[in-house]
Amino acid sequence: MQLLLESVGADKMNKLCLCALLITTLVGGLFLVVIFDSVVVQASTDVSGVLVSDDVWTKSGGPYFLTGNLLVGNGVILTIEAGATVNLNDYYLMVNGTLRVIGGDAEHVQFNGGEIVFTPHAESWDAQTGSGSVIEYADFASTSLGTSSVALKVCDNYLLSLEVGGGSVVSGNTVVERMNVNSGDYVAVVSNNTILGDVRVSGSAVFSFNAVSGETTISNDSPVISNNTLSGGVAVAGGSPIISDNIILGGLQASEPQTKYSPYSPTIKCNTISSGVSLSSIEELLELSFNTIYGGVYVPSGYVMISNNTINGGINLSPEGNFKVNATILNNNITGGAIGIRLAPTSNIFLYASSRTDAYISGNTIIGCETAGIQVGGSGNTQAGHTPLYNLAVIEENTIINCNYGIDGTRKDTVRNNIIAYNKYGIEVSSVVEGNIVFNNTYGIAGGQDIQNNLIMNNTYGITGGGTLIIANTIVNNFVGVESNFTTFAHNNIYDNSEYNIRFGSGYNTNVEYNWWGTTNIQAINQTIYDYKNDFFIGKARFVPILTEPNPEAPPIQTPTLPKTSSIPEFSSLTILLLALAVASVVVIYRRHMNVLDKNA
How far apart are CA 61 and CA 109, in angstroms? Predict the structure, then answer.
């Protein structure tokens, strides 16, 4: 019995040992498979030297490590597929052939470190055949990308920096540091990108619908810059770009260079610009039109055409050094600030150095300026023995409302056919004052050498401060029609001024013959004139003969329709939304960039 049990026990023990051995073998095999599998996943590929035949880099074959510089040879195609990782380290990948980086929306190609450089021999992108070099859905968190003069398709990438050349198509990218677009004679299309740093554009590029946080500089040739949000301002340093329909938050400066590599004639239109505009030229005409501008316009030199803009902050024509300004200012709406349009005083202090401004100012609406709607500075600094210089301004068909001075001029200006209303001083000291409608001011016209054919009504004082010729005006419904000394006063229609039609202030007898006084009653007319009979220190008025009916050459009474006085431009709701989105996108992209850097650390 004992032997039987021992025999059965031994047999059972053998079976148990066999089972244990089988289990151990299976577990060990599975463990080896897992280990082997892990080793395959963690495999890497080292590359350097010259790639002489087509190659494909895959996710499973990587990550790829450059152990030296790598050249993609002429005629060779290197394709990098979605999910692949390429560590350039401190080396560069130079492309003489074709580089095709084809990531996916859900799985980008990852590049780390180093630089990718396309030489002029590289294969350009061909949109018709879909061949050539292309970079899509890749992350270049710490890798620079330069395209030289090669046309690439660069879309939906995350880039440290980017050099764009040739006829490239660049769209949907985020660029962290800077972008340089130099397309030469080719048309590069750069659109719908977000650039956190600075941008420089030249050549024949089309740069549109981008958001730029840094400064945008246009240096040469004729690029088109349109429909962008440019938060860091714009500098036009050369060329003849078309800059239109942008939101520009950091101001715009256009300055003609001393040395020009291409014609300088920028067109700046239909933009919304904050922080002002500065225009400076030497011999070329600069045009600024149909923009909405906050912060005013400054012109230190050259030839400018400023037309059809809405401007908050005024236009300052202020030549510097030995420069002159020649300006045409047409049909702008100008509100707020100290002075709507300012011609700075002239300077003539050195033998060969002088500065002055010639301006034609017409069709503008100027509202609510603290100092003056239009101010023409006189002869400023003049060294002894030098002939004084004067600014020359023709000011016509403007509407100026709610300013301290409507027009603060000099005796060299021509002021005609303007509407001047609700200012403290309407028109102050100008040479020719003709055909204006001046009403509801405290002082209508103060001074002037030749005051003719104006409608002057509903002011406290119609004309004050002297005038050489006062002829064929209509002066009605003021508190005092004329309080002035003059040489000739004739053929005016002057009546219904509540205190006096004329109040003299000098001790000389004065002729005021051949005017229409609203009546032919000599005694009644005499009572509307303040002269010797009222104050023995002043002279007598000789007003007979009189006109027996209104002078038809004097202007008729009319009340023009005025624009709303609260028309200070404001950012539209769409503009505010775009600005908010731009700021939000910058924050999100910056955080993403920092996360990528942390992961690669």
Answer: 13
